[in-house]
Each structure stands twice: as C-alpha cells, then as structure tokens.
C-alpha cells in the first residue's frame, strides 16, 4: 500500500515549518476573536437600550410587581413619557445597581478608622499640651 502525495510531503517537510504555520494560523484566529469580542463590548457598553417593565424585570432578576413597587416609591429611575407605560434605561439601571452597593467589612473598617482619626485630629487642634 503506497502513501498519497500529500502524506509523503508531510513526512519529508520540516516538522518545525508545519508547527510554525499552524501556530501562525492559531494566532490569527485568536486576533480575530479578540477583535470581535472587543467590538461586542464597546457596542453594548456605549448603546443605551430602552427597556419595557418586563425587560427591566428580567434584566434585574426581579418580578414586575417588585419593579412597580420601586417605581411607586420612586426608588428606581424610570420614564413615563405617555403617562401610562413605563420605560427604563439599561445604563441607568446599571448605575442604580452600582449606587446601592454594600460596602465590604474591610471597607467599613477603613471608613471607621478614617472617621475616627479625623475626629481625633479635630479634638487635638484646640487643646494645648
């Protein structure tokens, strides 16, 4: 049984040349994937999508009843241009989520230490040693 011409070429070709070709192809594909992903990130981050109440509820993983309650209490940013339907900005919802972030224990301790040291500095200024 004889070898086909392409198989003979692979056997006689320098194995390092084959590896270099394959690595170049992989690097090229990686660059294409990175460009695609960066394009996706920038387009989704820069475009502000307007959401209905159902879409906002899905986005925030809340029920529509909870969204209605937040709207009623004016605790969430919304628009009501026609006087009846509610709309939400995806970017405003993201900012709203970020603004309601709870500080970690380390951050709370750091804030406590900073406020404590600033109070100590104020008391010490008026006192004479």
Automatic annotation (TrEMBL):
Domain of life of the source: Bacteria
Biased composition (Basic residues): 119-129
Keyword check for DNA-binding: yes
Any matching Pfam family: HTH_17
Keywords, alphabetical: DNA-binding
Tagged with keyword Coiled coil: no
Name of protein: DNA-binding protein
Organism: Fibrisoma montanum
